[in-house]
Amino acid sequence: MNNLVIVESPAKAKTIGKYLGKDFSVIASVGHIRDLPKSKLGVDIENDFAPMYENMKDKSGVIKELKSKARKSDMIFLATDPDREGEAISWHLANILELDETAPIRVTFSEITKNGIRSGMDNTRSLDMGLVNAQQARRILDRIIGYQLSPFLWKKVRKGLSAGRVQSVAVRIVVQREKEIAAFVPREYWSIDVKLLSKSSKKPFDAKLVEVSGKKINLENKEQTDTILVALEGAEFTVAGVKKSKRNKQPSPPFTTSTMQQEASGKLSFGSKRTMRAAQELYEGVNVPGYGAVGLITYMRTDSLRISDEARTAASELIMQFYGKEYLPPKPRVYKGKSNSQDAHEAIRPTHVEITPDSVKSVLTPDQYKLYKLIWERFMASQMANAVFNTVSVDVAANDCMFRANGYTVAFDGFTKLYEMNESQREEGGFLPELVTGEKLSVKEKAGNQHFTQPPPRYTEASLIKAMEEFGIGRPSTYAPTISTILDRQYVEKQQKQLKPTVLGDVTTELFEAHFGNIVDTKFTAQMESNLDSIEDGNQVWVNVLKDFYGDFASTLEKAEVEMEGKRIKIPDEPTDVICEECGKHMVIKLGRFGKFMGCSGFPECKVTRQIVQTTGGNCPSCGKKMLTRKSKKGKTFFGCEDYTDCKFMTWDTPVPEKCPKCERTLFKKTGKEKKIYCVKCDGESE
């Protein structure tokens, strides 16, 4: 019997093919094969928003091969990814191959393992039109906004701009944070801190003033602080009370897409795109000694915290084997997701817990290994016992003042033996000696310290993803693409890890706020996401959802066209201190279609332009001049000498502040499997 299984990616096809055997042929569609046309709207708004799908031109060869193999097959199974997008791809495949969508032709694999593939093939079903219609509604909604709002931006701001249902809201979130930072007025406050010494210890401990005359203290200036410091001169510091307790800390749940991206950003410095690329590779399959081709993690686009009983049991057995019974909780842990989470998939977890990160390090790329280690450890820790802390809070009296010191010791490390606690889990305080009530303490140091309140921090990729999740905009599959889009289209730029709106992001957001409030409103966008979920569940008709949206959108667009008639918004230039070598005027930073560049403020009379370069802090090992950060044609960062005409030195490796101990030239850091810090000239490696 000749069976055909169609998946999305060639890597997955290769892995699945090894498990299914000679009666099955596995082929990849390589993503979508049919879509709305690029050259026009492709949606018949007057005819219930009927989409005008067409075969994608670059997939003609794939489609020809699919049809050829389908004609020779007895059974055809559609095994694209187990989400809305995957369901829609299967539906398009069914249409092109003329398959009965009500027949049991749909297969989903939550994990690419022997058991996962067997389970999927044993549980075939018909196409889920709820999922398909939710994807269609999202695609058409995004197409209408993009194709009808983008031309408005071209006319009023600049050609080539684009608008998007989720991307425009994400940009506004970043813009609003920047406004909060700009409007922030620092508030001065003071603290009085002391270092105290007990007779039982040679190491001093820190305490902070918390009360004066039984009332909480809020020091606003130096005068108030100095008054109290004077009153404390010669005061006797006595332990007024010692409060001891035990505190349990629970492990974090296994990863969802959002938390995986956040943790990978914080612990691995991975951007969301890099994280999802490595996760996709781990899901699709890796050749593991003793296992063959196997997917190492479950499906990576999920907001569920559910895990299977088999996975929970396997984790418990391994914890018992590695760490002992005391590291298991009294009863197996079950985590509950948010009320609006989609529970079709499990949380992200290793498919075989016995495949430890170190056992597969040699067959994984550095990114795959780092991410797999993070996922494996997070999942295993989620099934371990609580960490237990002995906490101590000490009150120290001096005249009418009360100081407080907090400390803790680890009574039982529990899950922290494997996985580091996050900020919210950590205990406050540090070292404290054994203290008893009534004990006299000596003062080693006493000082008033000035502080200022800090503005809210700029978003990073991780914190923006968290905000999007909290606002309810986007879904696990859209977080990374949305951030990539707003960066690629220059609405937002990255400075170190921080996201900052560009002048283009400011201008377009201001325009949208003035004329298309709903498009950049988080509540409106979140409600639309809920509507799409409702379509998926079969509780709303997708055409009705689009009708409800389009009526208001069309009238809003028409009104904006009238209000902006004859008007055009200029993207402001950023002033600099650089002087134009031709005319002596100041250069300004302009934003062009291909990024920022420097131009003369005297344009159009003076047309001098200049690239914006970033120095690295290191020196060229060939000629000693400054090293600059540059971009290749494909956008990859490299480093080259500022004298690029005469000195051709360049490298992909990052210059570091340290100097070579042998020749005192700038050292370079090589990443990847051959990670090291080295000298170009004498190869004197730094320890």
**What is the general shape?**
globular
Note poorly predicted spans.
none
What is the distance, rounded to the nearest whole angstrom, between the alpha carbons of the first and last residues? 62 Å
Round the mean pLDDT to the nearest integer and report it. Answer: 91
State Rg. Answer: 30 Å
Count of beta strands: 29
Strand fraction band? 15-25%
Fraction of residues in helices? 25-40%
Structure class? alpha+beta
Strand order of the largest sheet: 8-9-15-14-11-16
The major β-sheet equals: 6 strands, antiparallel, barrel
Number of separate helices: 16
Supply database-style keywords:
4-stranded antiparallel β-sheet, alpha+beta, 6-stranded antiparallel beta barrel, 687 residues, 23% strand
Describe this protein's structure.
This protein has 687 residues and is α+β, with helices and mostly antiparallel strands. The protein is built from 16 helices and 29 strands. It has a 6-stranded antiparallel β-barrel with strand order 8-9-15-14-11-16. A 4-stranded antiparallel β-sheet has the order 19-20-21-22, with no helix packed on it. The longest helix is centred in the N-terminal third of the chain and has 28 residues, at 129-156. The protein starts with a strand and ends in a 9-residue tail after the last strand. The mean pLDDT is 91.
List the helices and strands and how they pair.
Layout: E1 3-7, H1 10-20, E2 24-28, E3 34-35, E4 43-44, E5 50-51, E6 54-55, H2 60-71, E7 75-78, H3 84-96, H4 114-122, H5 129-156, H6 167-183, E8 188-197, E9 205-212, E10 215-216, H7 222-231, E11 237-249, H8 257-268, H9 272-284, E12 286-288, E13 292-294, H10 309-323, H11 366-382, E14 387-398, E15 401-412, E16 440-452, H12 461-471, H13 479-488, E17 492-495, E18 498-501, H14 503-515, H15 522-536, H16 542-563, E19 574-579, E20 586-592, E21 595-600, E22 609-610, E23 614-619, E24 626-631, E25 637-641, E26 650-651, E27 654-659, E28 666-670, E29 676-678
Parallel strand pairs: 1-2, 1-7
Antiparallel strand pairs: 3-6, 4-5, 8-9, 8-16, 9-10, 9-15, 11-14, 11-16, 12-13, 14-15, 17-18, 19-20, 20-21, 21-22, 23-24, 24-25, 25-26, 27-28, 28-29
